[in-house]
Amino acid sequence: xxxxxxxxxxxxxxxxxxxxxxxxxxxxxxxxxxxxxxxxxxxxxxxxxxxxxxxxxxxxxxxxxxxxxxxxxxxxxxxxxxxxxxxxxxxxxxxxxxxxxxxxxxxxxxxxxxxxxxxxxxxxxxxxxxxxxxxxxxxxxxxxxxxxxxxxxxxxxxxxxxxxxxxxxxxxxxxxxxxxxxxxxxxxxxxxxxxxxxxxxxxxxxxxxxxxxxxxxxxxxxxxxxxxxxxxxxxxxxxxxxxxxxxxxxxxxxxxxxxxxxxxxxxxxxx
Length: 271
Description:
38% of the residues lie in helices and 24% in strands. The protein is α/β, with parallel strands linked by helices.
């Protein structure tokens, strides 16, 4: 999963301060995401995981700090100045965030139409159909509306839209939330497969320990208004911070570890 270019950061955040009125969410937050890795972000409720992602992609303006994506600053920039950078990332928002009045195929076409308005309709249909199948949806999902899809299918449709412009960087906000264990595991496998096949860098917000163990190269822990630790699961387990210990070594953490150990010792080719 991890690229050889480990010192080539795709995302750099320095001294980020996020606040809503007098409520400070982040204070002096620093973060760096390497090219080609699946980078997990975890933290308790209210630690601002989604706020961090929105700040990186320009949907949230922080009080202080700097954010760079692909070496370009994204804070306080005109939308037109960020067009070339924006085309290089895709976003799957929590729940899919599909337009309910558009079909799946039309949803996938939205970012393409925004950046390439002159493209022929037949080509748009062809691209959308390809992205739908790429994310594991049946070919007949394209003409359907979001209300006709299951929760897992909506996630995949949202992922198809996020991949519409062939991005280098993929943001996933709680992609397995609301899915049953089988569906969540399947989505993890899809994410890892797409990352490897397409050479993506993935910024993944999750609370799902199975996801962290299964596909993340490194994990950042948000607490005390900043990133308190970044590392592999093993590196984080070696730290003595109370929240980290409780999160990774609690009942759910132990279950995730047991799953990993079973998979590691399973006979080759066994499911």
